[in-house]
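pinging the channel bc i need a second pair of eyes. not urgent but kinda urgent?? the chain im working w is below, pasted from the shared doc
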Amino acid sequence: MAPTEVSLSEWQEFFNDRVKRPGSLIDGYLRYVTRMQSLGVPPLFELRHISKILAIDEALLVGMVNRTNQFYRDFEIPKRRGGFRSISVPSPTLLYVQRWIASEVLSKQEVHDAAHGFVKGRSVVSNVNVHKDSRTILKMDIKAFFPSIQFKRVIKVFLSLGYPVSVSFFLASLCCNKKALPQGAATSPTLSNLIAGRLDESLSTYAHGRGLQYSRYADDLVFSGEKIEKIDITRISFLINRYDFKVNENKTQLLLESRKRIITGISVSDGKLNLPRKTRRDIQSQVHRLVKFGFTDFSNHSGGYDPLIYERVLGRIGFWLQVDPENSTAQKLQSMMQTEVQKNEIRYANQFKALPSLDEFAGNDQLPIESANLG
């Protein structure tokens, strides 16, 4: 039974059986339980309690809290505009823990209306729709969005919900790596939205006062309206810095009606939503090369190892179909990739069956997956 489903009388009976000095102590526990259940989140008392709920060995959970970096595998993938993006993939058990935190605790919190990324019922398409009919568009980017969100800001999220300091520390530790939000953790998207909520409120207020629309998709900020001036960029940058984020000035763009305009990868040049031709060609090329050469040769030719390349390409096709659901080319590419994934799942199953899990190798610098025969 989930902690939120346990009645107050059952909690009281539980405390009466275990607390040696009843009275005000039990009253305090019950007030805590009542508050957390009213918020729809599970009341948590200590790490042992969390381990019981998750049916995970307490020693393993302690290891995840104290040596979190040993339960991640870091790698880099090439960015479309050059350079590399660092990805941290949690071990299967840590991922399970993070998914529980995300679904049972974080998903119950309200996210600002301006946030469109990682929110149920909103998407990259709803983000673009806010601005598609505007004459002028301002695009800005938050520099190193996830890594810039430090541990102290994450722990404040759990403290604000009413969790004790110790429990908040445990939960924040399970969500962070190297004292910051990792790109790859299941909890990072929602936590980033909650932490950026005050920024969204401030920027929404500013935009409204200037007769502008504002939206945010992860680290991409978009403002639009009849007219946007340079002074607006200065004031918006000030507000972003005020909330402990930094602007990536190299990505700031002021787009007029006459120029080609792309918002979060979607073209809105003619007032309609379209995937840019270059993006469509790039997706088609990726699919055909993966099908023709397979994972290993594709990685060698791409200049970077990406163990999630199949999922990533399927995600790009899904993105295309979000913008243009009836596109026959995208539907065909999706079918090709799904077939390829099924073939590879069978092909590699026996090779990976004998490999130890990342949990078993937590603490080792070299993981066996590095040398696995992926060809």
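so Strands lie at 72-78, 84-90, 136-141, 213-217, 220-225, 253-255, 262-263, 266-267. and The radius of gyration is 24 Å. — does that match what u expected or am i reading it wrong
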